[in-house]
Write a structure and sequence with these properties.
The complex is a heterodimer of chains A (321) and B (94).
Chain A: E1 2-9, H1 15-24, E2 32-36, E3 55-58, H2 68-84, E4 92-95, H3 102-111, H4 113-116, E5 119-129, H5 133-139, H6 141-148, E6 152-156, H7 165-174, E7 180-182, H8 190-194, H9 200-209, E8 215-218, E9 221-228, H10 236-248, E10 252-261, E11 264-274, E12 277-278, E13 282-283, E14 294-300, H11 307-319
Parallel strand pairs in A: 1-4, 1-5, 2-3, 2-4, 5-6, 6-7
Antiparallel strand pairs in A: 8-9, 9-14, 10-11, 10-14, 11-12, 11-13
Chain B: H1 3-17, E1 22-25, E2 30-34, E3 37-43, E4 53-56, E5 61-64, H2 67-77, E6 89-90
Antiparallel strand pairs in B: 1-2, 2-3, 3-4, 4-5
């Protein structure tokens, strides 16, 4: 499986600077890079120092809407060229346009069977301008979406804004599970950014951040957290996910969860989903921390705050007979 | 599932589907009033197992074996389904 990571962030936040820095790391120099630019004349790809055959530009449209099909075709073509030996790369980095909503992009990566059979989404990194980020998020819903869907948030230009506490609080409200990292001129070890968001060490931060059940509201988007002490009967999980996808799929931006299942309480089940697309349930060998409560975080628009918890309780009651 | 919990879940479901309606606790189960429609949701009797719920309208009684099935039937009865039902799709393993 070829790992794919998405670098997103609002216009001017520092995505290309970050990508340039990442590509200088020997371990990432051989990445295939897909750059999506907004506008008739693409500039960003000119700024990247990587081999020509490994760099693809998708101009004249936004990756999340008009050029989604181009993204799928590009990835499929790249994989075919890789199999034939025409190009060599071990991972794909996608830089979205500054106005892109990452959700449809993730949807394309996860749903297209030809892509999904050979690619694995590892992380969504959202670059936030430390100086202008707060105002940008307040004014532009695209920036809010980008922050909410991140696995990791990277504050750029922190040399220009020494005090980022207010912005960090704003970001923590939007996306309590994403670690907030800092960099100047894209200087940060790439492995910190792109390690799989499903690995235990990545889950640990998310678990700590979502330990309190709550609903947070911002720009019409809510974060709903569910915390449960008692283990859930295993049969409830597929029923809950089915109902979630069927009734809230259009309103669900992202879902993550770690569940203590009654039949195997020592091996937590990890849930990941984007809209109505759900990853198969993943079973960890052990809990990533001493806290063994089930936690579920849903980010969506227009989902009643208590509906997921009430549904879960109803299904659990049925399962227990 | 006690009637207040059932009422709360169905009321939230109506909100989720964008249906303007009212849910009241009835003698058995709950009564849903939406526009000119009146529907009842009642728990099935133990001897009706594996059915757990009944969705009752003037025209018919629909059984449901789980809350998942009940919500699906209710949404359909209220004409609140989207053009293309968003069933769960399974992506590649992480």
């Amino acid at each position: 499986m070829i790992p794919v990571s998405v670098i997103t962030g609002f216009l001017g936040s520092g995505k290309t600077t970050l990508l340039r820095s990442v590509l200088r790391d020997p371990a990432y120099a051989g990445s295939a890079v897909i750059v999506n630019e907004w506008g008739d004349i693409g500039l960003d790809h000119e700024l990247l120092e990587t081999s020509e055959e490994n760099l693809l530009g998708l101009a004249n449209g936004c990756l999340c809407c008009t050029t989604r099909g181009d993204l799928a075709r590009t990835l499929i073509d790249l994989a075919a060229r890789r199999r034939s030996g025409a190009v060599t790369y071990h991972r794909v980095l996608i830089e979205t346009s500054g106005l892109a909503d990452p959700a449809p992009i993730l949807h394309t990566l996860l749903v297209d069977p030809t892509i999904a059979e050979s690619h694995r989404v590892e992380a969504v990194v959202t670059v936030v301008d430390a100086l202008l980020g707060a105002e940008t998020i307040a004014r532009h819903p695209e920036a809010t979406q980008q922050a909410m869907l991140a696995d990791r948030l990277l504050l750029s230009k922190t040399d220009l804004a020494p005090d980022t506490s207010s912005l960090e609080a704003q970001l923590a409200t939007l996306n309590p599970g994403a670690p907030i990292l800092r960099s100047v001129q894209g200087a940060i070890p790439p492995d910190v950014l792109f390690a799989s968001a499903a690995r235990p060490e990545a889950l640990r931060h998310w678990l700590d951040a979502t330990a309190t059940p709550s609903a947070r509201h911002s720009a019409g988007v809510e974060t709903i957290s569910i915390l449960r002490e008692d283990p859930l009967p295993g049969v409830v999980l597929p029923l809950f996910l089915e109902a979630l996808a069927e009734h809230a799929g259009e309103k669900l931006l992202r879902m993550k969860g770690i569940i203590r299942v009654a039949e195997a309480p020592e091996k937590p089940a990890v849930l990941h989903g984007v809209r109505h697309v759900l990853h198969p349930i993943e079973w960890l060998e052990d809990w990533p921390s001493a806290d063994r409560r089930s936690r579920l975080v849903l980010i969506g628009q227009g989902i009643p705050q208590w509906w997921p918890a009430r549904l879960l309780e109803a299904l659990e009651e049925e399962a227990r007979g | 599932m006690n009637p207040p919990a059932l009422r709360a879940l169905i009321a939230d479901s109506l909100t989720l589907w964008g249906v303007a309606g009212r849910v009241d606790i009835a003698d058995v189960g709950v009564r849903i009033t939406a526009g000119d429609q009146v529907l009842h949701v009642a728990p099935a009797l133990p001897e009706e197992s594996p059915m757990r719920w009944w969705l009752i309208s003037e025209a018919r009684r629909r059984p449901a074996a789980s809350m998942l099935g009940l919500l699906r039937s209710l949404r359909y009865a209220l004409n609140a389904t989207s053009a293309e039902p968003a069933r769960a799709r399974v992506a590649a393993p992480l």
